[in-house]
Amino acid sequence: MRKGLSIGLALVLVLIGLAPAIASAQANPTAGQAPQREAGQAQQRVENRKGIAKMKAERLRGYIARHIEVLKSIIARMETRIAKIEARGLSAEGQTKLESAKKNLVDAKTLLGNTADTAKKIVADVESVLGGDDVRKGLSDAKKKIGEPRKLLADAIAKIKAARQDIAGALGTVTAPASMATTSTTTSSAN
């Protein structure tokens, strides 16, 4: 009897020890699917990176487009100012400075056009990279290219500033219209 009791007791202890293992095996039937889940998570991370890259590329394009529009409006105002100055009449030195200002504005317009084209190309490059497998390398290449439109914008701004200085120099050499010259001599002789 003692022998049967000790065998029964040993059997109960073994079953109690195995009970948590049996319960976890029944509760987690997908224990063998961990590699599949990790692969799915890796794919999800890649998709998230692609989405973020697209969003950043669009933000860059929008940023550059906004700056181009602002600079174009500045150029338009400066061209209007040049036309008004020319209508007043200029000395030879002033005319030279005004021509320099016009040239700088034309150069700035060209740079702005190049900037817009470069920004569109970068967005297209990023989208093509996102279709490939090596997203990280493609994005690092795109980051290097992003500096190019920013440099073009800076060059355009420098040209606009140079044109602004030329206009200011030309304003210093504006000749007075004939009607103003006669009125100023009349008032000075009356005193």
Automatic annotation (TrEMBL):
<protein>
    <recommendedName>
        <fullName>DUF5667 domain-containing protein</fullName>
    </recommendedName>
</protein>
<feature type="region of interest" description="Disordered">
    <location>
        <begin position="29"/>
        <end position="50"/>
    </location>
</feature>
<feature type="signal peptide">
    <location>
        <begin position="1"/>
        <end position="25"/>
    </location>
</feature>
<keyword id="KW-0732">Signal</keyword>
